[in-house]
Amino acid sequence: MRAISCLGAGTQPWSSSVCTVHKDSFAYASTLAIYVYQRETGCREWTLRSILTEPRVSLTALSWHPTQEQLLASVTSDDRVCVWNVEQQRIVASVSTPSPPLLVDWVPFER
Fold this sequence. Notes:
The chain has a single domain, classed as Thrombin, subunit H, CATH 2.40.10. The protein is mostly beta strands. 0% of the residues lie in helices and 42% in strands. WD repeats lie at residues 52-94.
């Protein structure tokens, strides 16, 4: 038998955006937490960097900021989009939406 893909325990396999990657880091959402892993340059092993929790509701999608590695967006089943600072392990911005978002992504632009 050959493994085609592997998801962590508690990951929502019905959502295609519960995993996200940025350079030497990746994150995946379980039902109530985001697990962030990091790999040191030249190293083959991944280390758990942080566990971000949103205890009230289920997490449904993730997206890493394309240029700012410390920022990670998540959407929840209670119609919210949250921006996390992974280094500080806290939500730095949150906005409510009129209905549950299914996906989240960043639109890069310059000011």
